[in-house]
Specification:
The complex is a heterodimer of chains A (about 750) and B (about 375). By secondary structure, chain A is of the alpha/beta class. In chain A, the strands form 13 sheets. In chain A, strands 8-7-6-16-29 form a five-stranded parallel beta sheet, with helices on one face. Mean pLDDT of chain A is about 90; it is low at about 655-670. Chain B is an all-alpha fold. Chain B contains 21 helices and three strands. The chains are: A alpha/beta (about 750), B mainly alpha (about 375). The interface of A and B includes residues 381, 448, 475 and 483 of A.
Chain lengths: ~750, ~375
């Protein structure tokens, strides 16, 4: 019996049972619930209310608490997801510790779930409320925890999202460490010419952001740097940055640079141009170098020293790698995406010369402003194949990359403007130029660009054809006919994939989805927060986005981070794990299971014990069941609270026997005469249906056939007849495999 | 396998299509088309073929000939892609593609070619008259009419008629044979039981004489508050067509009877038939010329220069024809002779260019298309 469990702390509990306007009281007999718990130990007040969440109810609850000196409160209504905070607030307003409030869910868990069994629903509600009361009796006062927060943020990734975030945070007075992996900022946006919507070029956007970043005194930019370790917790992270040497100390003049590059014997594929050309180990990005200081790619450099002479001492090949550690209240992750790299042979990529990707085409257009030439041939016809690496029928990238349809259409428009005479074919499986981007699609389709659509689950085929290339597809827009195109260039409209950076994922301990992108806590309600308090995600590291969407999410993360750390302290939920240091023997199992890194090993006298880092603990309770010593308790869900609830629920039999409503239904009250009187009151069609069942059980189609009532109508009439006890399931099927129904036992 | 010709939409612009690539495949055109059915879905399919440049598919289609350009599709098109005008330009394109001489393509795509050809043929007539005309007598017949048969003996003219008819038939029939090859031996090969070519023959004759499909095509027209069930386009066209066939027959087959120096009384069949034919032609011409000038309907808004060439030549022929008649019975010899030469100088190039190579070829292609379509659909039905 529950009286044996732990210590009783609360003796004056107020219980409120909600009708929810009928949502609950139509099925659960709320008055019966009230009667059943009235005399429960510890209960000093029970009320039923029509809408407990209404303003007037809340006001009277506050009065009840104050006048009666209640020390705990139970509301039996809807899900705590809906109104836990509402009633905690009521408690707070009445001067009660808000954690002395218990919400019992008798709507989703009882009235709605068991609307066809009202008596049992009432019974269940009583047990749930009693369990709530038992828990309430054992509640201790809890208080939210306050921890200190450093008003400084580390922003990982200096693409457009990272730079935007850094600028906003700096503007709100937060000191920012902006960390970029590459020697130059800007990410993929710096690779693009004109980007869709508006007239701006990608590199111009980067340049503007970068120039602004440089003017801010409270932003420190690290290029060639990575986050290699994160310790601590929300409000006080200890972030280790590893700074790669740049090799160039001072900007080389154009002559020096040209000479030094000439001297450099090492060349690698130029990733900035997506492998369209090669570059040396000493390199920059031309007028898109932000900062405008050249760099040495030490991955390619052999430190042969041939560049040194031309550089006049401005190059230092011996620069060491450095490590620094900074304290930060929040971390904003803006690490961006990788363009999908088609597999060798995917639509002929890597095997047929004329097949390139959309990012490559973008670079090609930047590199060849006057005339578009590919492999010595002027390009006149281009076939774009959409959804390469997105919406894959087979493969892991089942998502839509959002930006590529519009990017391809926009590329086609610019092709038309810059290289008159080029004609493009767009092989898509449903255009997704959503929102205002639709006007671009409209413009493109008006301008003579031809759109063809292949069916979901099919793919166009790309084949070598003599000197050229041919593309075939079954075009849904041409009666599914097989169409053959002979373009000069095939452009694969590749999507976005998550950055391949397992090191960072591990360091940040952020969960990633099956698609490899970082996961937010809640897609709609908490779209930039992660399960790690104080670590935010924004931009394309979270999932495909266009530039506008990237900026929006970046600003959202900024606002969240600033709200968190700018006040100096952070308030945390008190539902934490606590460790009984007497019982603990440090086996480390709790540390292993904790995904938040909230367990640390400390010395306690002469033994080692586990301790919970309060700021990191989420109160998930994962450590409790793995502790072999049962040394861990979860505040708000202590063993004694939970066991007392189980006890209350387990008292089922006694309640059932006592329960009035249950008795009425269980005893067949209806006699033969009653039955006929009741049936007489039914409408004609229902009577007709009952008559067909007099001989033997029948299935719905049979009843419909005999009565001439449409099947649908028979169905719902039968269901209501069953609900009110006239008809019952036989749980048998007829020869056509339909369930059959019979007259209920009441009729006999 | 259908091969795309990326430059086809440009080509088609020469034949009159304007903005077909604006099409976004909604299918409204086909939905509103009164002539579209399960067997021949028009015009969206043709628009799509045009956008992609599937030339083989287009050339093997009869669909463009099954459209009579009521213009409903163009009016309803949400993108103003002009599906009706596209069908019109496809008919021009098909005429050119059936023609093995290549002249049709020249005439449709180059004004210079067309005008030069007209000039050349007119000059030929002039030269022939200069060389072979009879005496230009001013002596009138006892009835007071001009002795036209002295200046232009019907026997000689008839010889010329027969030569011309032979040439026209040769070109037209050889092109129809090519049309047949393209339709039945194109990308979709259909095995057609030979008998179907006979059992469906009635369609050819029936549609040649009535343009029955046309009568079902055009939307009903309002005159004041009253809604006409009969299409004025079809009526005007039928009057014009019947007048033309009548006259052509009288000129080629019954010239001796038609080009006579006798002035018959007004009720004489020779005069009545001539007047009817003239009325039919004139009525039709006025209706169509007026429409193309007003440009108030979808189907007369977009005139290709070949449309005007045809109408101008035909009008010239009719007007000079009427004048010859008036001058002859009024006893004005020189006026009669010069107008007669002028009449033939217009008539001859009109027939030689328009019938086998240009707009007037539809007098054969349209009924043949309906006929071939009937044969093909019957064959497909048997296959099923």
């Amino acid at each position: 019996m529950s009286e044996n469990r732990g210590s009783i702390k609360k003796k004056k509990i107020g219980v409120y049972i909600c009708h929810c306007g009928g949502n609950i009281s139509d099925y659960v007999d709320v008055e019966a619930v009230k009667d059943a718990v009235r005399d429960h130990p510890g209960v000093s007040l029970v009320k039923t209310t029509m809408f407990t969440c209404s303003d007037s109810s809340q006001v009277s609850m506050v009065e009840d608490i104050r006048e009666n000196g209640l020390d705990a409160m139970v509301v039996a209504s809807c899900s705590p997801k809906l109104h836990l905070m509402t009633f905690r607030d009521v408690a707070r307003r009445a001067g009660l510790n808000p954690y002395n409030y218990i919400q019992v869910n008798i709507r989703e868990q009882s009235s709605w779930a068991h609307s066809d069994h009202p008596a049992e629903a009432t019974d269940k509600a009583i047990h749930l409320v009693k369990a709530g009361i038992e828990k309430a009796r054992r509640l201790g006062d809890l208080n939210p925890m306050e921890i200190e927060a450093v008003n400084r943020a580390v922003v990982v990734g200096a693409g457009i999202s990272g730079m935007r975030a850094a600028l906003e945070l700096a503007g709100m007075g937060t000191e920012v460490f902006l960390v970029e992996k590459e020697p130059f900022v800007g990410g993929h946006t710096s690779q693009w010419g004109k980007v869709f919507q508006g007239e701006a070029r990608g590199d111009e956007i980067v340049e503007r952001l970068y120039n602004e970043v440089r003017t801010r005194e409270n932003i420190t930019l690290f290029t060639g740097a990575g986050v290699t370790a994160v310790k601590g917790n929300v409000g006080n992270f200890e972030v280790t940055l590893t700074l790669q040497p740049r090799g160039v100390k001072e900007r080389l003049t154009e002559e020096e640079f040209a000479e030094a590059v000439q001297a450099c014997p090492e060349s690698v594929e130029d990733a900035f141009n997506f492998g369209l050309m090669r570059r040396k180990a000493l390199y920059d990005r031309g007028d898109r170098s932000f900062p405008a200081l050249q760099a040495i790619d030490f991955g390619a450099c052999t430190q042969c020293g041939k560049c040194l002479e031309a550089a006049h001492g401005k190059i230092d090949l011996e620069q060491p790698e450095e490590t620094i550690t900074v304290q930060a209240g929040a971390i904003l992750v803006n690490t961006g995406f990788d363009p999908y790299e088609p597999e060798k042979g995917e639509f002929g990529y890597g095997e047929i010369e004329e097949v390139i990707t959309l990012p490559q085409l973008e670079r090609l257009m930047e590199l060849q402003p006057g005339k578009l030439v590919w492999k010595d041939k002027e390009i006149r016809h281009i076939a774009f194949i959409y959804c390469v690496g997105s919406r894959q029928p087979e493969g892991k990238n089942t998502y839509c990359s959002r930006y590529c349809c519009t990017a391809a259409v926009h590329a086609a428009l610019r092709l038309g403007e810059n290289y008159p005479g080029i004609k493009t074919f767009h092989l898509h499986k449903g255009m997704r130029t959503y929102g205002k981007q639709e006007v671009l699609y409209d413009e493109a389709s008006r301008n003579g660009n031809v759109f063809l659509q292949f069916a979901e689950g099919t793919q166009p085929e790309v084949r070598k054809n003599g000197q050229g290339v041919e593309v075939r597809l079954h075009d849904l827009l041409t009666l599914g006919k097989e169409i053959e195109i002979h373009p000069d260039l095939v452009v694969l409209v590749t999507g976005m994939t998550a950055r391949n950076d397992p090191g960072l994922v591990k360091t940040l301990k952020l969960p990633v989805g099956a698609d490899g992108f970082f996961n937010e806590v809640h897609m709609k309600l908490r779209p930039v927060e992660t399960v790690m308090d104080g670590i935010y995600i924004s931009g394309t590291c979270q999932g495909p986005k266009n530039i506008t969407e990237t900026m929006t999410s970046s600003l959202a993360a900024t606002a969240k981070a600033n709200a968190l750390i700018s006040k100096g302290t952070i308030s945390l939920e008190p539902n934490l794990a606590v460790i009984d240091e007497e019982k603990c023997v440090w086996c480390g199992k709790c540390d292993e299971i904790c995904t938040y890194g909230a367990i640390e090993k400390v010395k306690k006298g002469d033994k080692e014990v586990a301790r919970v880092i309060n700021a990191a603990c989420k109160g998930c309770g994962a450590c409790l069941p793995v502790c072999p010593e049962d040394a861990i308790e979860l505040l708000g869900y202590t063993n004694e609270e939970i066991f007392s609830m189980i006890d209350a629920i387990a008292e089922e039999i006694r309640f059932k026997e006592k329960h009035k409503v249950e008795e009425e239904v269980a005893t067949p009250a209806a006699t033969d005469e009653d039955w006929h009187i009741k049936v007489e009151k039914l409408d004609e069609k229902s009577k007709k249906i009952l008559r067909t069942l007099q001989e033997e059980p029948r299935a719905v189609p049979e009843i419909a056939g005999e009565t001439g009532i449409p099947v649908k109508e028979v169905m719902y009439r039968l269901m209501s007849l069953r609900k009110y006890g006239y008809v019952k399931d036989t749980n048998e099927i007829n020869e056509d495999e339909y369930y059959t129904y019979a007259l209920s036992d009441m009729s006999t | 396998m259908a091969k795309v010709n990326p430059d086809f939409s440009e080509t088609l612009k020469d034949y009159g299509a304007f903005d077909l690539t604006a099409c976004y495949n909604c299918g409204t055109c086909t939905a509103v088309c009164t002539l579209s059915d399960e067997e021949n879905s028009i015009p969206r399919k043709m628009v799509r073929y045009g956008v992609l440049g599937l030339e083989e598919e287009i050339q093997s289609s009869v669909d463009p000939w099954l459209c009579y350009y009521c213009g409903e599709c163009s009016t309803s098109c949400p993108r103003q892609a002009g599906p009706g005008e596209l069908m019109m330009s496809l008919r021009r394109y098909l005429t050119a593609s059936y023609d093995w001489t290549g002249l049709s393509r020249r005439f449709y795509t180059s004004k210079i070619w067309e005008i030069a050809a007209i000039m050349l043929l007119s000059a030929l007539i002039l030269v022939l008259f200069l060389l072979f005309h009879g005496p230009m007598t001013t002596e009138l017949t006892p009835q007071g009419g001009v002795q036209l048969n002295t200046f232009a003996p019907w026997k000689r003219i008839e010889t010329g008629d027969w030569i011309m008819a032979g040439i026209l038939s040769f070109f037209l029939l050889s092109n129809i044979f090519r049309m047949y090859r393209k339709i039945f031996h194109g990308p979709q090969k259909i095995r057609v039981p030979f008998r179907l070519f006979f059992t469906q023959l009635w369609e050819l004759i029936f549609h040649f004489l009535t343009q029955w499909r046309f009568s079902k095509s055009t939307r009903t027209t309002r005159i004041g508050r009253k809604e006409l069930k009969i299409s004025p386009y079809w009526v005007s066209h039928w009057l014009l067509m019947s007048g033309y066939v009548l006259l052509f027959t009288m000129i080629v087959v019954f010239l001796e009877w038609f080009q006579t120096d006798i002035i018959h009384p007004w009720w004489h069949p020779q005069r009545l038939l001539g007047y009817y034919a003239t009325f039919g032609l004139a009525f039709g011409l006025i209706f169509f010329v007026y429409g193309r000038i007003r440009r108030d309907q979808e189907n007369n808004k977009h005139s290709h220069y070949t449309d005007w060439t045809f109408l101008v030549l035909l009008s010239g022929t009719v007007i000079t024809g009427i004048l010859v008649h008036i001058f002859r019975i009024s006893g004005l010899p020189y006026a009669t002779y010069y107008t007669y030469v002028l009449h033939l100088m217009i008539l001859f190039p009109m027939l030689m260019i328009e019938v086998p190579f240009s707009k007037w070829s539809h007098l054969a292609y349209r009924p043949f298309a309906v006929y071939f379509n009937g044969v093909r659909n019957a064959a497909l039905k048997i296959k099923k």
